[in-house]
Amino acid sequence: MKKSISIFFIVVNLCLGALFVYAGVRKFIPNPARKAATEQSAEPPAHVMQMKAFIGGLKAPEYFWPMLGIVEIVAGLLLLSQFFALAGAFLLLPVTLNIFLFHLYLKPDDTAGLFMSGLYLLGNLLIILSDYKKLKTVFFTPKTLIQ
């Protein structure tokens, strides 16, 4: 049983790591420009406008989108290394939480995206909680640092 649990966490580390390395690399590949619609189309729904505003706000300062890509690549590589997986999971926690909340609030009709982003967040939290013994010694020391 213990061996199957450790194999499960290795698979979670590898899947999450590969996913975020790929997502981080994609941030540096420019998207081809879309052709403008020749017809006057109806106004998109409010949640689509909110999504465009949110992503546009992330891309507006020219430093944030590449920095997010670098964070995703570094965290993914740390997860893939298995040795530094806890550090990678901590680095990735705000990113996976933001992805989940993005799908929860800005894409209410996309249940598959919400489910997948929930799995990313759950996997990330499981990686962090699996090393609870290591974390307990860091955060809950019996002695105070200032004496």
UniProtKB/TrEMBL annotation:
Pfam families to which the protein is assigned, alphabetical = DoxX
Q: Which organism is it from?
A: Marivirga lumbricoides
- Keyword Chaperone attributed: no
Protein's name according to its UniProt entry:
DoxX protein
Q: Where is the protein localized?
A: Membrane
Q: Does the keyword Protein biosynthesis apply?
A: no
Query: Which residue ranges run through the membrane?
Result: 7-25, 63-80, 87-106, 112-129
The entry's keywords:
Membrane, Transmembrane, Transmembrane helix
Bilayer disposition of the protein: Multi-pass membrane protein
